[in-house]
UniProtKB/TrEMBL annotation:
<dbReference type="InterPro" id="IPR006076">
    <property type="entry name" value="FAD-dep_OxRdtase"/>
</dbReference>
<keyword id="KW-0560">Oxidoreductase</keyword>
<dbReference type="InterPro" id="IPR036188">
    <property type="entry name" value="FAD/NAD-bd_sf"/>
</dbReference>
<feature type="domain" description="FAD dependent oxidoreductase">
    <location>
        <begin position="6"/>
        <end position="360"/>
    </location>
</feature>
<dbReference type="Pfam" id="PF01266">
    <property type="entry name" value="DAO"/>
</dbReference>
<protein>
    <submittedName>
        <fullName>Glycine oxidase ThiO</fullName>
    </submittedName>
</protein>
């Protein structure tokens, strides 16, 4: 019997929706299954929106090259979905200032990060304290300097999800099953069966699993390979004359460990900031403690920013992986099930390259040498024999 669908995609986040949007017109019978009441119910609408290909230790290796590839694809991808959806999605060319809270961190940026960026032909600039404050006047008096990466971008992720949702719920969109949970994905001789929580089954020639941190259950991965990392963030109201000029990231170290301080401007003067990394936590309830610690760490870098009115707090769950690299590739010998998950704190940054690679694999298009390099590092079977060890969380 013929399958019901050419393709079923499980998960309506930036990865699942992006793949379905890319395949519009290429496959006729497509179904997108999302357990939430709307597309963008998961991490993708909770992201802050830095497009930062070379931020954090993980990006100093081949993941940074994959992310750079994605950064290059970003403007054209945003232009296209903004134009098809008739929604504005401002993409701000803010650059990224990695702020050194002390001399030791400035030293690390100068001697460990700068050479890698130079080796990649990127025009990064090392700044002393005075230059860093000139670049970002909201910085407090205590910062030691920084490293400015001019090519980084900033975007408001909920706007991307609104645009994708508008496209996918419009003419030519997939069959959309909202409020519908997939409990199992099983390969058979000729097709794949997708089992739903209400007992129904669907069949498809191929299935993409893009269910964020919950993909683990459908892929049968151990909990130390793919796991939740809760992130809590907040938004400050616009203040006349006190807008953030560049997006800033800093590591603050205290007795409790390392804390990421991240702040990204919005076009109307709002500032999205945070952010916590709570490994193994899978609820999306914002807590008073996280609000307090986020404000405290922000005040160490920005001085008076933390006293601005907070208009919103929220939490989302990143799909963390043991080596901080996504899981992208076929998981079965017949190449019917494609995993597209595990993007950690970089799923917005990595969305265009992930969508492009998934489309090539699903449509059987040729892959370039760069594509193959990216697919080699994201192979789902790399964890089979114990695999790479735990990496420090980064955003
Ligand atoms: C606070 C915070 C800040 C962040 N900031 C940034 C940033 O600045 N830059 C950046 O690049 N990244 C950032 N990220 C990371 C980014 O948000 C994620 O990597 C990305 O959104 C993952 O996308 P996804 O589509 O894989 O997952 P999701 O958006 O979580 O989508 C998965 C979807 O699958 C659905 N689903 C799950 N299980 C099932 C099932 N069994 N059946 C049906 N549906 C199911 C879920 O409901 C969900 O809608 C941030 C994340 C957080 C939490």
């Amino acid at each position: 019997m013929a399958s019901t669908y050419d393709l079923i995609v499980v998960g309506g986040g930036i990865v699942g929706c992006g793949i379905v949007e890319r395949l519009r017109g290429e496959l006729s019978r497509v179904c997108l299954v999302e357990q939430g009441p709307r597309l963008g119910s998961g991490a993708s609408s909770a992201a802050i929106g830095g497009i930062n290909p070379h931020l954090g230790d993980d990006c100093m290796g081949p993941l940074g090259l994959m992310a750079q590839h994605s950064r290059e694809l970003f403007p054209a991808w945003i232009d296209r979905i903004a134009s098809v959806s008739e929604r504005a999605i401002p993409l701000l060319p803010t650059g990224l200032l990695q702020v050194a809270a002390d001399e030791k961190e400035l030293d690390r940026l100068a001697n460990e990060v700068m050479p890698v960026l130079a080796g990649r032909g990127l025009g990064a600039e090392l700044l002393d304290a005075r230059q860093a404050r000139a670049k970002e006047p909201l910085l407090g008096p205590g910062v030691a300097g920084g490293l400015f990466q001019p090519a980084d971008l900033a975007v408001e992720p909920p706007l991307i999800m609104d645009a994708l949702s508008r496209i996918l719920t419009g003419p030519g969109g997939p069959e959309l099953l909202l409020d519908t949970t997939v409990t199992a994905v099983e390969t058979g001789a000729a097709d794949v069966t997708v089992v739903l929580a209400d007992g129904r089954t669907l069949t498809a020639d191929r299935v993409v699993i893009a269910a964020g941190h919950l993909s683990r259950h459908l892929l049968g991965l151990p909990e130390d390979v793919l796991f939740p990392i809760k992130g809590q963030a907040l938004e400050f109201a616009p203040r006349p004359g006190r807008a953030l000029s560049v997006q800033c990231d800093s590591l603050v170290v205290d007795d409790a460990g390392e804390h990421v301080v991240f702040a990204v401007p919005r076009p109307d003067g709002r500032i999205a900031a945070g952010v916590t990394f709570e490994v193994g936590v899978d609820d999306t309830v914002p807590t008073e403690e996280a609000r307090r610690t986020n404000l405290h760490h922000l005040s160490l870098i920005f001085g008076d920013l933390a006293s601005a009115p907070v208009t919103r707090v929220w939490a989302g769950i990143r799909p963390g992986t043991r080596d901080a690299v996504p899981v992208l590739g076929h998981v079965d010998a017949d190449r019917r099930i494609l995993a597209a998950t595990g993007h950690y704190g970089m799923g917005i940054t990595l969305a265009p390259v992930t969508i492009d690679l998934a489309a090539k694999l699903l449509l059987g298009l040729p892959v370039t040498d760069d594509d193959q390099r990216d697919l080699d590092i994201t192979r789902p079977d790399r964890f089979d024999q114990g695999g790479p060890s735990w990496a420090r969380p980064t955003i």
